[in-house]
Structures are given as structure tokens and as C-alpha cells.
Amino acid sequence: MGVSRRGFIMGIGGAALAANPINRILAEVINPQTLVIGNIRYGMVHDETKCICCRACILPCHRENKVPAEVTRLDSLDNGTYRELNKNSRQFVRKSCQHCDNPPCVAVCPTGASYKDPKTGIVDVHHDRCVGCRYCLAACPYHVRFIHPLSKTADKCNFCRDTNLAAGKPPACVAICPVKALTFGNLDDPDSDIAKLIASKTVYRNKLYLGTSPKLYHIAGKFGEIRG
Description:
Blueprint: H1 5-19, H2 22-29, E1 42-47, H3 58-65, E2 74-84, E3 87-96, H4 104-108, E4 114-116, E5 123-125, H5 135-139, E6 146-147, E7 154-155, H6 172-176, E8 182-186, H7 193-200, E9 203-204, E10 216-219
Parallel strand pairs: 1-10
Antiparallel strand pairs: 1-8, 2-3, 4-5, 6-7, 9-10
């Protein structure tokens, strides 16, 4: 009985994952050195003091990138309710790809489908190479990848690289945000809005201790604990 290329790789992948806990895989594949990627390194800042969780960012993301309703490339999560000036205030955090400089999802991909674009620093997927083995889903410490229900390949945020960015526009979520909670741009350009914002505010990034060097920054909300 013949075995397809997809089935063979998925079989090998399952055995490897069973023998190696995720933490061990991460420790082996993450390069602690932040890579230098030309003169463009796209990143994003999410300002939790502005976000109102209107979820206006999600619909255009689905529309522009043809993402089915049952999955999503980004989400806005409730980070608690706090009392301020005799009224309740809520805070929200963005959940999406971190576009790591040292992405473990790329390091574990057996077919080269997961990759980091050397011209932009964007972490993306060659869907024609992806066999749906789910290695990258298991390796991502931010749990933001999923299997596309139609293509059966790994999918994730790519900053609208094939749609809005290709047309010279910012990512759809950034363009639609009614409170300007998202800032996007070149982290390596000191004159860019994102570089100036990071230099002028106290920011944080999630799970820096893993050495992934994520390029999604957060301006923390006014209350409570930072849950990185």
C-alpha cells in the first residue's frame, strides 16, 4: 500500500512529537541570537490603553485574507475588569502572530513551508509546500497558528502581506481601528511612527525569556498584571 508524501511526513512528525516534549523542542531550535534582516523589519504595537475590544479589526482581516469564519488570524482577549473613578473599566490584549525574529515555527518545519521573509522580517507560510503536519502549531509558544479548513495547510497573520501591503496600504486591522490602538511599521527606521512610539512609551513583549524576540509590542493597560 502506497504512502503519500503528506502522510509520510505527518507520521514522522507524530513520532517525533511523542518522543520530545514541546519545551525540549523549543530549547533545541531557538537561536538566542536576534537575526539582522536588511533594513526593513516590520512590527506592530498594540496600545491596551486605547483598545475597546470593538473587534472591528477582525472582520476586515477575514475579508482581505479570505479567512473562514470558524478560524481567525487575530483575536482580542479580555484582560480583566477594574474599578476606576467609581466605574468599571475593562482591558484587552491582542492575540496574533508575533512575527518573531527567531521563530520556532520556522525551525521545526520539515518542508520549508514556514519561513521568514528576509526582505521584511514577516513570518509566513508557503502553502504549496505545507503538508499540514502541525509541527509549527505545536512549536509556536503563542498558539496563534491554525489549520485552514479549506486548504488544510497552516495559516496565520502575515500582516496582510499579499493584500493590503502589496497595495501599499497598512494591514487591514490597522487601517480599520477606530481608536488608533494599532501602530505598524519598520522597527529599524528610527523615524518611523512605530520606532518613535516604542522609544516614547513603556512597552512589553510576550515570553521574551524564550529567546524568540517577538515583533509584536504592547503598551500595557493601566491596571493589573501583565500576562505575558
